[in-house]
Design brief:
Radius of gyration: 28 Å
Distance between the termini: 100 Å
Mean pLDDT: 82
Shape: elongated
Oligomer: single chain
Low-confidence stretches: none
Helix content: over 70%
Strand content: under 5%
Length: 195
Amino acid sequence: MDVKKVFEFYNNRVKPLYCEIEARNNTLPAELLFEIHAAFDHLKRYHIGEETETIACDRAHSHLKRGLLDAFKLKLKYFNEDARQMMSCKADLTLIDNGAFYPAFVADRHKIIEMAKEARLKEANRDREHAFVCWVNTALAIDEFTEKHFARHDHLSWAQLKTSRLLGKDSIRGIIIGIISSSIVWFFTSRYFCN
């Protein structure tokens, strides 16, 4: 490996995900910054003559890969937060697309969770190359999920409005039924027990 390949890996793989994570909260996690710092420190060692190009580049590439693995995990964390938030919103998701949206949402989310489990398992077994491929596939599945489900915000707004109207009507019906029931009970109890 040479310096050019390290920078290509940084530019094509690390930087896009780095920017995505940064855009999420306008901050970068320390773990990612430490790995990037360590990678560029190895490149510095090559340029000042402390390490050979091959050793410095292999070590820099390794640090960038570890940072990328951390970024994949953050992407998964943010995905899970967004999915949980959507599932707990005050909208009946079964109203969207004539009931087809919610089962697809749950199935796609489950698929991503399974993919992430496989990636973590590969990583735990020190199968870093396969883990990296699994994490890339998981990240792509998250992007597809986001495009397919979260990008349909107008449908979610419609479902929230429809749900609140249905709940509002049910609440009014409940109050009316409660008043009528209470009146009937009062009428019968006052008539039979007060005499």
